[in-house]
Amino acid sequence: MKDLTDLRKIAENATQSNWIPYEPGDEPGYWWVWQEDKLPWYGGIAQVSESDPGSVCQAMTTDGNNPEQDKADATHIATFDPPTILALITRLEQAEAVVARVRVVATGDPTEYGWSEAMLAVLRALDGDTRG
């Protein structure tokens, strides 16, 4: 899996909108990745294709005049493949489990335990308090 900074840059370079699976009524069986806010016209990101063994989809903007954006969208689709997403979900679940364990330890009044200001700041940060 790529570094999170790389993943962020790839996602930021892709077409920014909600992407959804879309099967046009006049083309049953043909699936597209489409920009939800542009349905039903001019919002194609990629067409799912089985015409070539090993091909998953063909990236394209609807006008075909922006090959750089096509490449950015194709890179996004290829990078955020199922193994990468599953690895990210695993990392998130592990981080949430760590936070949950710390919360269990932190139940009650932490000052009763003589915790340092640093530990109290950590607990506040876990609760989303930006004061540190």
Quick tags:
single chain, alpha+beta, 2 domains, 12% strand
Structure summarized in a few sentences:
The protein has 132 residues and is α+β, with helices and mostly antiparallel strands.
Tally of DSSP helical segments: 4
Count of the domains: 2
Mean pLDDT across all amino acids: 77
Distance between the ends: 31 Å
Helix content class: 40-55%
Gyration radius from CA atoms, angstroms: 22 Å
Strand line-up across the major sheet = 1-2-3-4
The total count of strands amounts to 4
Largest sheet: 4 strands, antiparallel
By secondary-structure content and strand pairing, the structural class works out as alpha+beta
Order of helices and strands: HEEEEHHH
**Which oligomeric form is depicted?**
single chain
User: Which residue ranges are poorly predicted, with pLDDT under 50 across at least 5 consecutive positions?
Assistant: none
Globular, elongated, flat, extended or rod-shaped: what is the shape? elongated
Q: Per DSSP, what share of the residues sits in E-state strands of 2 or more residues?
A: 5-15%
Describe this protein's structure.
It is a single chain. This protein is of the alpha+beta class and 132 residues long. The protein has two domains: 4-80, no CATH class; 83-126. The protein contains four helices and four strands. The chain has helices at residues 4-13, 67-79, 82-105, 117-126, and strands at residues 19-22, 32-35, 44-48, 57-59. A four-stranded antiparallel beta sheet has the order 1-2-3-4. Helix 1 (4-13) runs antiparallel to helix 2. The model has no long low-confidence stretch (mean pLDDT 77).
